[in-house]
Each structure stands twice: as C-alpha cells, then as structure tokens.
Design brief:
CATH class of the largest domain: Alpha Beta
Number of helices: 5
Largest sheet: 6 strands, antiparallel
Structural class: alpha+beta
Low-confidence stretches: 1-19, 218-223
Distance between the termini: 5 Å
Length: about 280
C-alpha cells in the first residue's frame, strides 16, 4: 500500500535527517522495530492483539490491520486445538515509493515469536582478567533451555567469535573456551519472563542468547556509535536438543542485542509468509 497519505511517516523521515542542514536528493529508507502480543483461537485466527511499542499512528494502523488478518497453524494440546498466546517482534522497513518525498511503501522484514524477556537484574558474566590484559573481546552465542518458570535448565556455547585474530588456532580455542566458561557460569543463574502460553499454561523454550564482551563497554556490540566492530566467527556447536530446521531459519543474528533472546521452538507458525509483503 502506498503511504503518501501517511504524514506521520514522512515526519519521521524528517526527524531521521535532523541535525546540520544539508541537501537531500533522495528520500531515505526508514527502519524501526515493534513489539506486541498475539492470542490465537483454536482455528488459528488472531482473536486478540496488542501493540506494546508506541508507533506513529499511521504506521500502527497499517500494522494492526495486517496482523489481525494473520492465520496460524492451530496449536494442539493433548491432540486438540487450543487458545494460545505469544510475544511478537516485528522488523519494519519503509522505502521510497515514488518521486514525492512523502511517498513510502512499508513492509515487514522480520518476525519473531516467543522471545522471553529478562527478569529483573541478571548477573553479568565475569570478564576474564587475562582477556582484559590482552585487550581482547568476544561475542558468545549461548544455547539456553528455559523451563516454564523461566529458569535456565541447560546452557551450552553455540558459537564464539573473537574481536581480534589470535596467533594460532590453538590460541583461539583457548580464548574462546575462557569466554564461554564465563558466559555459561553467569547464564546458569539467569531467569526470564516466559511469553508463551498454551491452553492457559506457560511453556518453556529453547533460545539463543548473545553475550558480548568489550574491553571498553561490557554488553555493547561496538565501542562507540558510528564505528565498526569486527568479529572472527568460531565453529558452531549445536546442542543435541536444538532443532536444526529452526536453527537454519533463524537467519542473520549479528544484530541481536545481548538483552534479546531468539526462541528456537515456538509453536506459533504462520500459514502464509508475510515477510516482504507490502502493508
């Protein structure tokens, strides 16, 4: 749908460009994310929907209209279709749709269901002293099994990426193991608020959680805004309980923040692929 009527979205474009005056020859591509909650009925239709993120009214209206038309595969409990609820994360993109500066076309570029939310204070991992001295950082992707109470029941390192190249592969293994031990030790005490219920009962989940070590700012993916942060990916080690098909469908997780967790076994599945479809 053409968004030339959406003055709010055009205004958002102007805000993106706020700052020192400069000439703009082409309209920018806009991106934003949105979080909400969905309830589906036994037939898989959306029976309730709430948008938690505050979006421009015109954008919220388009998202709301589209989400309420979604159709899911029915979720079963004891072989019978039941009511179920989940958290939803959307990635939205608005691209210029013509020569007019206020003409945009918006579509969904990403959908994730069932992401648990951090519960209260979660003890960060201890930064290995040896790594601080070496001025070495890392990004550890943990595979975590969470029970219905949100407590971690199993934690394994899925992939560890260093931010500098060691002298040898044996050195790299040494550093990766060091960061992994620190991450796993901390994650064992973490607790999450689970976001999915099936037939009124909260369900557990298997998730991927990034843990970022930076010598300057622990928990940040970059040392400063506007600077690149390079990582050297290590080997992947899927846990035995990880769904390989779901794992392959997670796509690029490089932009996943360390306060986010991606569910690997959410039972919520859309009947039609809505990613890329214009709203």
């Amino acid at each position: 749908m053409n968004l030339s009527r959406c003055a709010a979205l055009a205004a958002a474009a102007m805000l993106v460009l706020a700052g020192p005056a400069f000439a703009v020859e082409t309209a920018p591509t806009l991106e934003m994310s949105a979080d909400g909650q969905i309830q589906i009925g036994p037939d898989g239709s959306v029976t309730d929907y709430r948008l938690d993120s505050k979006l421009p009214p015109a954008v919220a209206e388009l998202v709301d209209k589209d989400v309420r038309r979604w159709q899911f595969e029915p979720i079963l409990a004891d072989g019978k279709p039941v009511v179920a609820k989940t958290a939803m994360h959307l990635g939205l993109r608005a691209e210029p749709a013509g020569e007019a500066k206020d003409s945009y076309r918006m579509h969904i570029v990403e959908i994730r269901f069932g992401e648990p939310k951090r519960s209260g204070s979660m003890r960060p991992p201890h930064y290995p002293k040896e790594a601080v001295i070496a001025h070495l950082g890392a990004r550890v992707m943990l595979a975590v099994r969470l029970g219905a109470d949100g407590q971690a029941t199993d934690v394994q390192a899925y992939q560890t990426s260093l931010d500098a190249r060691p002298r040898s592969e044996s050195d790299a293994e040494h550093w990766r193991a060091m960061f992994e031990r620190a991450s796993i030790d901390a994650a064992k005490s973490w607790r999450y608020n689970m976001t999915e219920t099936v037939n009124g009962k909260t369900v557990g989940s298997s998730v991927l959680v990034p843990v970022v070590f930076s010598v300057h700012v622990l928990g940040s993916q970059s040392d400063a805004p506007g600077t690149w942060k390079a990582y050297l990916p290590g080997p992947k080690h899927p846990a035995p309980w990880m769904d390989s098909d779901r794992l392959a469908a997670t796509g690029d997780l490089s932009n996943l923040r360390d306060d986010e967790a991606v569910s690997l076994d959410s039972p919520f599945k859309l009947k039609d692929d809505v990613v890329g479809k214009a709203l």
